[in-house]
Design brief:
heterotrimer, A alpha/beta, B alpha/beta, C mainly alpha, A: alpha/beta, 31% helix, B: alpha/beta, seven-stranded mixed sheet, 10 helices, 11 strands
Chain lengths: 271, 315, 336
């Protein structure tokens, strides 16, 4: 990130006894504890309906927990002012709106909202940050285009740029690779790792895909049916056994000769 | 299925038949084709034609705009017809007035066109007293008067007020005396005879409209030698809506329906055919009279009373 | 009018405001110059025997044209905000019940024979605002769709009250009531009234322009707005009240004039885009220009001057249909 400003501290993100229930019964996220160390890269894995999206929304303060709390840098998230929250934590949804009548540039500029007051004109700093964010996300050439005219991948990157324009210390992403083709998926994770390593931004990404995301992370959380099954480093947690249990599929472990890392293949229904 | 009808069916049929007969047709009487009659040759009431001996004072207004149909008639009856330079949208009498510019009605007063005519007196409805247009005219230096001519007020007093505004108060009083005399004459003509119970209907849409005791229409009916059936229908209002059942309860000997024919501003004219069909269903004695002017306040009051009396007693 | 890469700057706003301001001024002049009778401008400017013509210009036409500008501006302003808050292209001051409440207040005053209708209309409108809010609020939140629903319900309720009151009054007042309900500018406005309502319009217009970014975010979606740090429930409530207040002021001085608050925002989106920092002030200016032209047209189109509410409805309906057919009606924040 372009900044002549001193690097800001990344606060720790923590979930304590976090619980959620959707109105009308149905899905229930059972009390959950998790810690995301500053500058960490965590991936939340699980099948659909396991509570991954709910968890990451709770972490972002977008859903009010039924019980428990989220702590940001030791403070309860509710106590942190909304604007301060938005300056610290950015959230990229799985399905960002497609049909908005704004250009890519205008969309990215919206990410500056937490820093702007009522004064309606954009400051030089805002423009600079937005420009840098667009460059980072490689969408500078799209800036005059209207969002509905962009492809899925391009749109995703524009919204990523918007998230970056918030100058966040923590980036939460809900299945960011879901609509991307393979090349862009790799690109995305490379990018996230770069952010993570170069700027110490904590990344928490939700994925339902086993192999790619887990290459980049240093923490894995396994969710199943609203419960945190296990949490730990990829090396510890990513075994055929664990994954089979988490996804209810028979998973086989193979080895990638080039990197020596395990690769997991779903082989068939769980026995 | 049994081969013969159930033994209970017979008594059931009988009961249903008796019920049908007992209830009868919805009206109080048997409908009869000739109870409802259209009186097509009833004349329009005429303005009183008085010769005024006195001259109009110099100070009297010379250019008068009258936005109230009855006031227009009054001005002509007072012999000031030539001084009227503008009338309202709905005025239809006297014929001499009808070519004059139409400058508004109870809803909308055309301020600019009135200003162009440079009147020195404008007569407007009482209900417009607080509105913007009269105030604008006043600010332009024009005298605006709101004579008490609306339903529930003493019509004859209203006539005098118009005369006064026009600078000819004595003529107004003479006119009123004349009218009162004419009405008295009608009253006496029918004094000794039968006083039928009459209902006067002056609008049928959206609902049947009749007058009450506080309206001048009530006095017209009484002066015409009849008993006003709807006098106490709705105390506190000059006229009211009634439904067919209430009319049937009142059981008037005669209904005079003035709502047929062209409407004048406030009402909606009803077609003759539709009215005939309607009243036939009710089953009472009805005369359709396509002269709505008969229920209008104004200098033709006496003439109207006389005509009404003819209608009521002549049939 | 995308403004990258320089972003949205003062000059963008001032350019647009100057443009629409000039348009407004031109329409205002038109509204004063044209009327049901002809005025000899040569005489007026020449200065001789000017009395009656000058009176017509300054006392008959100018206050009324000014009122048209204010009412049009208020309605368009409210329309823009409502459409952003409710994500529905049909959102308008009319549909949310505020107009109906104001009309009901006015109708009660007329039925009671009271001449001064404005304060009653204002009270009625306020009552409607509060009622809509109370009906829409569930569990301390005011979701967008509930707000629309509450507005429609309150609208229907007051419409029924109006009909009832109309039916029960004597027919001398019925015509006055009908006249009010069609929605038209009165013949006479006190400068005091115009000053007060004009001040409200300018203040609220400026305030809502400052809320432009928030409106942008809200128009995209509640989720997006929350993520950027907007307290959506509170901001939506506040904006709803402000827009309703604007509507109340308009309705109290002119009765319910329809379609202005509905179509002006859609047209302006085609002209200046969807950024509310521009859309809000330009809609207000354009709304004023539109209504004064509509009122002028209403006064010369027919043999006798018509209430402007008729003209806006007759023009507005087909125009809205045309906009729909050319696929130019979008939900604020969504489209194409």
């Amino acid at each position: 990130m372009v900044s002549e400003l001193p690097a800001r501290e990344t606060p720790e993100l923590e979930a304590r006894g976090l619980e959620y229930r959707y109105a009308g019964g149905g899905f229930h996220l059972r009390p959950l504890d998790a810690r995301f160390a500053p500058g960490g890269f965590a991936v939340v894995l699980g099948s659909n309906g396991s509570g991954k999206s709910t968890l990451v929304r709770l972490l972002g303060g977008l859903l009010p927990p039924r019980a428990g709390e989220v702590r940001l840098g030791g403070r309860a998230l509710e106590r942190v002012a909304r604007l301060e929250r938005s300056r610290t934590v950015a959230f990229l949804a799985q399905d960002e709106p497609r049909r908005v009548p704004f250009t890519a540039f205008e969309t990215v500029m919206m990410g500056r909202y937490p820093f702007q007051g009522r004064w309606p004109f954009d400051s030089a700093r805002d423009l600079e940050v937005a420009r840098a964010a667009m460059q980072r996300a490689d969408v500078t050439h799209l800036r005059e285009r209207l969002v509905p005219e962009l492809s899925g991948g391009e749109r995703q990157r524009v919204y990523l740029a918007r998230a970056l324009a918030q100058e966040p210390r923590i980036l939460l992403l809900d299945e960011p690779a879901a609509s991307l083709d393979l090349a862009h998926q790799v690109e995305l994770y490379e990018f996230l790792r770069e952010l993570n390593r170069e700027e110490g931004i904590t990344v928490v990404a939700v994925s339902h895909e086993i192999n790619l995301a887990t290459r980049y992370c240093d923490q894995v959380l396994l969710l199943k049916a609203g419960e945190l099954h296990a949490s730990g480093s990829p090396a510890e947690l990513l075994t055929a056994e664990q994954l089979s249990r988490t996804f209810d599929v028979d998973v086989r472990e193979l080895s990638d000769e080039a990197s020596g890392r395990p690769v997991f293949l779903p082989r068939g229904p769980r026995r | 299925m049994q081969s013969s009808p159930s033994p209970r069916l017979g008594p059931l049929l009988l009961a249903t038949a008796s019920l049908a007969v007992a209830c009868g047709p919805p009206a109080g009487r048997t409908p009869h084709a000739d109870r409802v009659r259209l009186l097509a040759d009833i004349p329009e009431p005429e303005l009183p034609d008085l010769d005024f001996a006195d001259a109009v004072p110099e100070s009297a207004p010379r250019r008068i705009v009258s936005l109230i149909p009855s006031c227009t008639e009054t001005l002509f009856a007072l012999g000031l017809g030539e001084r009227v330079v503008g009338i309202d949208r709905w005025a239809d009498h006297p014929p001499a007035a009808l070519e004059l510019p139409r400058l508004g009605d109870v809803n909308k007063i055309e301020v600019e066109r009135i200003l162009d005519l440079e009147p020195d007196l404008v007569l407007a409805f009482q209900s417009q007293a607080g509105a913007g247009a009269p105030e604008l005219l006043r600010r332009a230096g024009i005298r605006v008067v709101h004579p008490p001519t609306e339903a529930g007020t003493d019509v004859l007093r209203g006539l005098v007020a118009v005369a006064e505004a026009a600078g000819v108060r004595e003529r107004g009083e003479a006119l009123v005396r004349h009218i009162e005399g004419q009405i008295e004459a009608v009253r006496e003509r029918y004094a000794g005879g039968p006083r039928p119970r009459v209902l006067l209907v002056f609008e049928r849409h959206p609902s049947i409209s009749v007058a009450t005791r506080t309206s001048f229409v009530h006095e017209m009916i009484e002066a015409a030698g009849a008993v006003d059936v709807s006098a106490d229908a709705d105390p506190g209002r000059h006229f009211t809506y009634v439904d067919v059942e209430t009319i049937v309860d009142w059981d008037p000997e005669l209904i005079v329906d003035l709502s047929v024919g062209p409407s004048v501003g406030t009402g909606t004219g009803a077609s003759v055919d539709e009215s005939v069909r309607f009243w036939r269903k009710v089953g009472l004695e009805v005369r359709l009279v396509p002269v709505p002017a008969l229920s209008r306040p104004g200098p033709r009051l006496a003439a109207s009373v006389a005509i009404l009396a003819d209608v009521i007693h002549g049939s | 009018m995308g403004a990258s890469p320089e972003g949205f700057q003062a000059r963008h706003l001032s350019r647009a405001v100057a443009l629409f301001g000039a348009l407004l001024l031109a329409c205002l002049v038109l509204g004063v110059a044209v009327g049901p009778t002809t005025i000899d401008f040569g005489r007026v400017l020449g200065g001789d025997d000017v009395g009656r013509d000058l009176f017509k210009l300054t006392v008959v036409r100018l206050p009324r044209a000014t009122a048209a500008v204010i009412v049009g501006g208020c309605l368009a302003l409210a329309g823009v905000v409502f459409q952003a808050l409710i994500h529905n292209p049909l959102a308008s001051p009319y549909i949310l019940g505020v107009s109906a409440g104001g009309s009901f207040g006015a109708v009660c005053a007329i039925a009671a024979g009271i001449g001064l209708v404005v304060p009653f209309a204002l009270v009625g409108a306020m009552a409607a605002i509060v009622l809509v809010y109370l009906v829409a609020r569930t569990e301390g939140r005011v979701p967008a769709d509930t707000l629309l629903l509450a507005g429609v319900i309150v609208n229907t309720f007051f419409a029924a009250c109006i009909m009832l009151t109309t039916y029960l009054t004597g027919s001398d007042q019925t015509l006055r009531i009908m006249r009010w309900l069609v929605g038209g500018l009165s013949d006479l406005y006190e400068w005091r009234t115009l000053l007060f309502s004009g001040l409200v319009l300018v203040t609220l217009g400026a305030g809502l322009t400052l809320d432009g970014r928030a409106l942008n975010l809200l128009s995209v979606g509640d989720d997006t707005a929350e993520r950027m740090g907007i307290d959506v429930q509170r901001v939506r409530t506040r904006l709803f009240f402000l827009a309703s207040l604007t509507t109340a002021v308009a309705v109290s001085i002119s009765g319910p004039i329809g379609f202005v608050g509905l179509i002006i925002p859609h047209i302006l989106r085609l002209l200046v885009g969807s950024d509310h920092r521009l859309l809000v002030p330009c809609s207000a200016l354009a709304g004023g220009a539109f209504l004064v032209v509509a009122d002028t047209a209403a006064s010369v189109l027919w043999r006798t001057p018509l209430p402007v509410g008729l003209v806006t409805a007759l023009l507005g309906g087909p125009f809205f249909i045309w906009l729909m057919k050319t696929r130019n009606i979008k939900r604020a924040g969504h489209g194409l």
